[in-house]
Design a protein that fits this description.
The complex is a heterodimer of chains A (257) and B (404). Chain A has 257 residues and is an alpha+beta fold. Chain A has four helices and 13 strands. In chain A, a hairpin with a 7-residue loop joins strand 4 and strand 5. Chain A is globular. The chains are: A alpha+beta (257), B mainly beta (404).
Chain lengths: 257, 404
């Protein structure tokens, strides 16, 4: 790890990539981004999801997302729907794993049932939006292989190929901002036929605790269907001190009531 | 009815008191109130001629479900209320209930709930054997998924390493609801729920207990439970004149539920052993669910379900599922309106009886929801002790809900 930091400092200082393969540089950037975001411990955020169809008609969902950072394994997250009202209280608990499939439970408030669900469906849309499940799951280094593509000023573009054959993508092109804690500026998604499917752009960035960059707006445009989904994040809370106990099945039931 | 009112009012006073004590001792930072109301209009049509006198063909109905919750102490303490009222042509289906009214406190690994609450246990789709805490609100739906609020003290301890332990103290038994004279899906003589007595001399005030441990290990989710108290299912006996004698026995029931989640497969098992003075038996449901996901690249999921049901009670099983196979399909469009369809068929391996069902739902706009349900009783064997009474009771149900 120390070696990587030293090399990234070296790159930052001299801007040279001479003796390095594109794979090594790609993974180095991904690791630098992970490092820059380490230590946030937990967060709670309110999310408004706006779905727009090709005729411009919109529909909205409100969700609350709680995240617990884990270093030995992937993060844990709890998502609770607040609207539309007929699905209010529907919640999911996800334990992401660096290697292998994630564990996921769904809570159905009308019958108070917790159901373990398959995390096999990575490529399917999340609640009718342009975000697939895999777009919203925790970004673990181990889930991709990397190739450095280009550097333009402070922007670095890295090709990321999903390890899991069940992914809906052949590759993503991720643009990092190396001057702003390696935050994501843009992601382009290529479908299984390797044609451009979607573009995700991040805007309204804010820095929390002097370290963590969080975008206020995610805009996902599907170029093939001309549909669009916008995520608006508000009330980021990094002071909640959530623990493992806030991510248990008992907590899942409480969240949905 | 009188005891019900006393029960609710004493619980309510109790909860108000807790509320006041909390308000005094805690420096409450933020209190969150939440109110929601669902108004549902339903129309049920039975297209076959009624088997018994006084039964109708058309049943328009209205139901109200208000929900209120108040949370404080960063959500670690709350009071939650869900009420229910239905107006129907069948006076027994016209009923009200407090589905939930409980105070809850959470501290790290501990959780305490006091009041009326609904608890669900189990993994299978066609029958819910393990699920025993709440009484079934039989007049509400044929599938038995609607439940009456159960008074309880529930104590939960959960940890990552050891799983979840639930202890239940259940001080009061609720009697099952049954359709009245004008209702469908009943026996030749309508059962008056107050005619069903208890084996226990303490009757509904018998102090019952239950325990459950659940945990997950990789792909395995497992639950083991035990219940000791007044059974939720009445035992029916018939004399030579055909009169029904029914009572709630004191039972011991041990249950196990298991799900293995592997890729797109969900393997499921639920099994119980129930013993009482009058009857000991074993029952199980085992099956699988497999989902073909995102078939069209647009989010269409098609799941297939298959389950085998066995009940040692044979024809006395109130569920009528003694040696049956269930096939079904769950279709989810994952569109903005959350359109979904569930189709199922239950076929008896010993007799000709078959039950088909379809349930579909779709959101309309942002605060409306439309649902369709149909149940078809087909070729019901006249030897079927329970089901033969329902052979004329195939129905189509349309409902629309508005959420405020």
């Amino acid at each position: 790890m120390k070696k990587i930091i030293i090399t990234s400092i070296a790159i930052a200082l001299f801007g040279t990539v001479n003796a390095q393969t594109s794979e090594a540089r790609g993974i180095e950037i991904a690791k630098a981004a992970e490092k820059a975001d380490e230590g946030f411990i937990s967060s709670i955020v309110e999310l408004k999801m706006t779905l727009k169809n090709k005729n411009g008609q919109t529909s909205e969902r409100l969700l609350t997302t709680k995240t617990l950072e884990l270093t030995a394994d992937g993060d844990k997250s709890l998502i609770v729907f607040k609207s539309p009202k007929d699905v209010k209280g529907t919640s999911t608990l996800t334990f992401t794993h660096k290697v292998g499939s994630d564990d996921q439970w769904l809570y159905l408030p009308s019958i108070k049932r917790v159901k373990r669900i398959s995390s096999n469906n990575k490529s399917g849309p999340f609640v009718g939006s342009e975000f697939a499940y895999e777009d919203l799951s925790s970004q673990e280094i181990e889930k991709y292989t990397y190739k450095f593509v280009e550097e333009k000023g402070n922007l670095l573009t890295v090709e990321q190929d999903p390890v899991d054959p069940k992914s809906g993508y052949t590759k993503r092109l991720v643009t990092y901002n190396k001057d702003k804690g390696y935050r994501f500026e843009k992601v382009e998604f290529y479908d299984r036929k390797n044609s451009l499917l979607k573009t995700l752009t991040y805007s309204n960035y804010k820095q929390y605790k002097n370290k963590y960059w969080r975008a206020g707006v995610f805009t996902m445009v599907n170029h093939q269907s001309n549909k669009e989904t916008v995520l608006n994040f508000s009330d980021y809370n990094f002071e909640s001190n959530l623990t493992e106990e806030d991510f248990s099945q008992a907590a899942l039931k409480r969240a949905g009531k | 009815m009188f005891s019900k009112i006393i029960l609710y009012s004493s619980l309510f006073v109790f909860i108000l008191n807790i509320n006041r004590i909390q308000a005094q001792t805690e420096n409450v930072k933020k209190v969150i109130h939440d109110f929601e109301l669902e108004v549902e209009a339903e129309y049920k049509y039975f297209y076959d001629e009624a088997a018994f006198t006084n039964q109708k063909d058309h049943y328009p109905s209205i139901a109200l479900t208000p929900e209120y919750s108040i949370q404080w102490n960063e959500g670690y303490e709350s009071v939650n209320l869900t009420g229910f009222f239905r107006l129907d042509r069948d006076e027994e289906r016209t009923h009200w209930d407090i589905r939930e009214l409980y105070y809850q406190k959470v501290k790290k690994k501990w959780e305490l709930s006091l009041g009326l609450k609904k608890i669900y246990w189990g993994v299978t789709e066609s029958n819910h054997l393990v699920d025993i805490i709440n009484q079934t609100d039989q007049v509400e739906s044929f599938d038995g998924e609607d439940k009456l609020g159960q008074p309880m003290a529930q104590f939960t301890w959960s940890s990552d390493a050891f799983g979840t332990f639930d202890l239940f103290y259940l001080p009061y038994h609720r009697k099952r609801t049954f359709p009245g004279e004008k209702g469908r899906l009943r026996f030749p003589l309508a059962i008056d729920k107050d005619d069903i007595k208890y084996e226990s001399s303490a009757e509904e005030w018998r102090q019952d207990v239950a325990f459950r441990w659940s945990h997950y290990f990789g792909a395995f989710d497992v639950g083991i439970s035990h219940f000791y108290g007044n059974g939720r299912e009445p035992l029916f006996t018939f004399d030579t004149q055909g009169n029904i004698n029914a009572f709630y026995p004191v039972i011991n029931q041990t249950g196990i539920d298991l799900q293995v989640t592997h890729n797109a497969f969900l393997w499921k098992l639920e099994s119980i052993y129930r013993s009482s003075k009058a009857q000991d038996f074993f029952a199980m449901v085992a099956g699988l669910e497999y989902t073909f996901s995102n078939i069209d690249g647009n989010g269409l999921d098609i799941g297939i379900l298959g389950e085998y049901l066995y009940d040692e009670r044979d024809e006395l099983a109130l569920s009528s599922m003694q040696n049956d196979v269930f096939f079904g399909s769950r279709i989810a469009f994952n569109d903005t309106q959350d359109t979904s369809i569930l189709i199922g068929g239950l076929t008896d391996l010993d007799q000709s009886s078959k039950i088909f069902s379809i349930e579909a739902s779709r959101r309309i706009g942002t605060s409306w929801k439309a649902e369709i349900e149909a149940r078809i009783f087909n070729n019901i064997d006249s030897n079927e002790f329970i089901l033969s009474n329902f052979q004329q009771d195939s129905f189509l149900k349309l409902s629309i809900s508005k959420f405020f």
